[in-house]
Automatic annotation (TrEMBL):
It comes from Actinoplanes utahensis. This is Beta-xylanase. It comes from the Bacteria. Belongs to the glycosyl hydrolase 10 (cellulase F) family. GO terms for molecular function: endo-1,4-beta-xylanase activity; polysaccharide binding. Keywords: Carbohydrate metabolism, Glycosidase, Hydrolase, Polysaccharide degradation, Signal, Xylan degradation. The active site is at E235.
Amino acid sequence: ATTLGASAAERGRYFGVAIAGGRLSDTQYTTIANREFNMVTAENEMKLDATEPNQNQFSFSSGDRIVNWAISNGKQVRGHTLAWHSQQPGWMQNMSGTALRNAMLNHVTRVATYYRGKIHSWDVVNEAFADGSSGARRDSNLQRTGNDWIEAAFRAARAADPGAKLCYNDYNTDNWSHAKTQAVYRMVQDFKQRGVPIDCVGFQAHFNSGNPVPNNYHTTLQNFADLGVDVQITELDIEGSGSSQAEQYRGIVQACLAVTRCNGITVWGVRDSDSWRASGTPLLFNGSGQKKAAYDAVLAALNSG
Ligand code: G3I
């Protein structure tokens, strides 16, 4: 096929994009997004600070704008994200203990209930593990409510929206030999053994020269899939340019296609100029909306084999 979404669909997968609500009035942006992608993630609009700016006062208008754009254009939606240490609203940032635990669970329940039936996959918990070699959980106000906060969030999400796939999502979990990857793997293994409702693991996949695509990427995806979860590449971007960038993108697509349970790939923005790290030109379209070599490599990989 001739677009990313249609080509991925022929391989039984989706190809998604992060959408920023503020850009939906840019017709070059929406033309590309509508043509190329069949899955949408709100870049910021469904996070905690956006959806519950005051405790128990929910605000869905920004998220709805993106969800409605996606659905009216025939696309599915990944929900991002229900529980995270970052982008918490001010009222939550200084909470602790039982009050925070209950506020977190209420948030998960209310947001997942509101969007019930519209979400393909939820990033239920985002970035709960520490970087570096410790393999520990990240210290956060949520973690300090007790080590079981993650499974509590997954159980609340399942109860609220039984039809959505429930994902754990993180970054720097791409290299199989890294402690963070191993720690997330052990958590997912434990959840599957104890019946905690988890369906998928999201690999954010933010790469640059200091954090290149590892040679064992396929091994990582396959090992997680072998635990009995789907794997999804959820926020892909790769800093660089030209053929070097294109070959890294190609490798990611090939790794996903080689893993039966790798359902789909989402890139974290449309054009380089839309990226959270625009100076790294990490995306598939340049600032003028033209296809880059990386785009051609991704499309070719989706269409080969
Ligand atoms: O909307 C306000 C604007 O009103 C204000 O004038 C401006 C001043 O700084 O800030 C604007 O908000 C910014 C928002 O993006 C929208 O552009 C925030 O400051 C900024 O922090 C926020 O950054 C987002 C970041 O998450 C926050 O953690 C990025 O857009 C978004 O791409 C990024 O996405 C994360 C994923 O959620 C999780 N994984 C990593 C990924 C990249 O950091």
